[in-house]
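batch_manifest entry 22 of 60
target: Protein kinase domain-containing protein
source organism: Halteria grandinella
requested by: lab member K.T.
priority: normal
notes from requester: please return tokens only, no post-processing; we will run our own comparison against the previous entry in this batch. if the run fails, retry once and flag.
--- input ---
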Amino acid sequence: MHNSKLALTMEKNQIGDYKFVKTLGQGTFGKVKQGIHIHTQQKVAIKILEKRKITDVSDVERVTREIHILKIV
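--- output ---
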């Protein structure tokens, strides 16, 4: 997806086929939003990371570890 299109859809609280419903939590690197698939109505959690807050190698390692954990759950 082209970055300007992504930014435009984020302004509408939507990325692709997922619409943001509400913020579930906030952490060091970003937010977790409740989302809903606009066609199936399936509820999901969407983690949005702010790249500018990931500043050093230890931050990258923490994010990578979390992604690995989420893949196996």
